[in-house]
Amino acid sequence: MPNPPDNLRSDRASASVEDYIKAVYRLQAEHGRATTRDLSQALGVQMASVTGMMKQLHAAGYVDHKPYQGVELTPSGETLALRVLRRHRLLELFLHRTLGIAWDEVHEDAERLEHAVSERLIAKIDAFLGEPVFDPHGAPIPQNDGTVPELQGRLLSDCPPGHCGQVLQVSDKDPALLRHLADLGIRIGLQVRVLDQAPFGGPVRLQAAGRQIDLGRQAAERVLVSVGSCEP
Ligand SMILES: [Zn+2]
User: Fold this and answer.
1) How many whole angstroms from 89 Cα to the centroid of ligand 1?
2) Whole-prediction pTM
3) Strand, coil or helix: 125
4) pLDDT 10s digits, 174-199
C-alpha cells in the first residue's frame, strides 16, 4: 500500500503545535526567552492555555522548562521551528513571484498554507524558485540542511546620520507598514543614506533613489539595512 502524503500522516505536528513552536522560536530570537506571558500575548490566547500547551510540547520533547524564564526549544523543537519557517518563507516567495501577490498580502496566506503543504510540494517549490535564500521581506529562508543564512544589519532607527546601506529586511507582520513602505518606494535592495535622525522620536530622513524620504520612527524601527559602505 502506498504511503500517505506526509502532511496526512498522524505523526506530523498539528497546526497549533507548529504555531506555538514558531512563537517560542521568535521570542527566543528576539528576547532570549519565551515566557508564558509573552506567549499568551504573541498568540492572543489565555495564559492557562499556554501552560497546558507547554505541558504537551514538553511531553513531545519540543521544549524544556527554564526556571523563571519560561521555556526553551530542544534541538527537535528547533528543527520543527525551522521546518515551519522554511515552508512559510518559501510559500511567501512563491506567491509573490509566481502569482504576483504583493508583499503585504502574502503573509496571511502563508500562515495557513504552511501547515497544509507537504514536504514533497515544498521541495518542488524550492527547486522551481532556484533554491532561494531570502523571502519577499528579506527574511532568510532556513535551508533544507537546517542552516539559516546569516543576515547582519542595523535597524534604520539606530543608524547615525551619514550611514549608508542597502535595505536588507522589513518586518512582515503589519500589512499597513508594508504598504506604507512600498508607497515611499522602499523595497529590498534599495540603497539608502541616512541624512538626519530627528530628536524626540521624530522621523528618520533618508536619501534614496535621488530623493528625500521622511520615514516615521515606528517604521524605521522595522527596517534592517546593511552595515557595508555605500556605492559612490
Ligand atoms: Zn510571513
Assistant:
1) 6
2) 0.87
3) helix
4) 999 999 999 999 999 999 999 999 98
